[in-house]
Amino acid sequence: MPPRSPRPYNRGPFKKEEAHRINLKIVGVPKVRLVGEDIEPEVYSFDEALQIAREKELDLVEIVPNADPPVCRVIDYKKFLYEQKKKQKEMKAKATKIVVKEVRFGPNTDEHDFNFKLNHAKKFLQEGSKVKAFVFFKGRSILFKEKGEILLLKFAAELEEWGKVESMPELEGKRMIIYISPKKKK
Question: Are residues 112 and 47 in the same domain?
Answer without folding.
Answer: no
